[in-house]
Amino acid sequence: MTVLASKHRFARVEGGHRGRLCAFGLLAVAALTGCRPHDFPQYAPNYREYAYVTNGGSNTVTVLDVVNVRLDREVPVGQNPVAVAASGTRNEVYVVNAGTATGQGSLSVLNAENNSVAATIPLHRQPVSIDLDRNGDMAYVANSGSNTISVIDLKVRREIAAIGAGEEPVEARLSPDGKTLVVANRRGNSVSLIDPATRNVRAVFENCPGAESAVILPDSSKAFIACGGGHQVMALALAHSEAHPNQPDRLETLMDVGHAPVQLALKPDGGELFVSNSQSNSISEVVTGTNDVGGAYAMGDNPVRGLVTKDNSLLYVSNLHSQEVTVYSIDDGKRIASIHVGDGPSALAFSSAGHLLFVVDARSADVAVVRTASRSLFTLLPAGRAPNAIAVKAFKLP
Questions:
Q1: Distance of alpha carbon 323 from alpha carbon 21, whole angstroms
Q2: Which of 17, 85, 114, 230 is the most buried (most CB within 10 A)?
Q3: Are 233 and 225 in contact (CB under 8 A)?
Q4: Would residue 302 be called left, alpha or beta, if left means φ above 0 and alpha means ψ between -120 and 50 degrees?
Q5: What is the dihedral of CA 153, 156, 160, 162, to 10 degrees?
Q6: Among 97, 93, 102, which Cα is nearest to 57's?
Q7: How many whole angstroms separate alpha carbon 85 and alpha carbon 132?
Q8: Cα–Cα distance for residue pair 118/104, rounded to 1 Å
Q9: How many whole angstroms separate alpha carbon 371 and alpha carbon 52?
Q10: CA 188 distance to own-chain centroid
Q11: Residue 109 — pLDDT band, cuts 50, 70, 90?
Q12: Residue 210 and residue 241: Cα distance in Å, rounded?
């Protein structure tokens, strides 16, 4: 296993059913007292877990072995991979390849059991995001260069429809009940709501400059969209949900937050969301039931991503113009730690058990592995050029 030593510390684990080995650099000796078995799950022999990192500059996906915390392989995919999603129902991972500014993109289907490309599905110009339905049968891809949403039948591995959206759609999110597709149109400064059953645009809401990140509450009653070109978050009440069965889609409010809100992180219980205000170096806390903005809290330099723990207690924030991930205690309402990682931390993902946090470092082209129990850097693993997105897939072989 290759470990980058630029931070003058490293640790290596080869664990699970193979045993574990700890090694420490100079600073890690002071910070870590040894491998603690209770920090790492005990895996069955047929258990597999991988993290998939898209490398836009090298046209590859880096596959990290989560069980043994090491590099597994690098898989060639299409040109300029920018997004990745793991199926919840089959052992597949889907990689969106944006292609060139004028050419078509594609979707690479990876077989997670052998980490190879099983199929390539042609898309339209500059696809940039993907979301899957609950059954894992359908995928929705936002094609920013052609102003469409591709509907992909994953069973037959082909596009079955292209739905018109606003100008430069950059994110399409499906509600948990499957009744609404929320599309953020960045250049159109708008949000489109699409009925997945009829594939018709149900409503369009304007006045969201640079719309780019969307989250939907677990009960499918509301959607929130970050207006990244301004300083607001749009709250929409969604029609056809159990909470609003006989009401039309409607704008509830535009909430003032920090400057350039670029990403929304929702608590698993849906009670609050956190806004990464990239130009204000802060996060804003929003109570989703009442649309109240609880306040802004200082983070690091250019916060761009947030991720909430499964127990709803902590928010991890990556600060792109730094080498730090900050940790915010939701119950206490304050920042409680800063974790030194690689250069340009951006995308984040937890391991399935939550004992590790993977941080994609865009500028140093590596992935920081953080132990959540101690909130400390465990190791750095190599990635390709310009890594930008990550997804984790866990499963058991037959």
A1: 27
A2: 85
A3: yes
A4: left
A5: 60
A6: 97
A7: 8
A8: 20
A9: 18
A10: 23
A11: very high
A12: 27
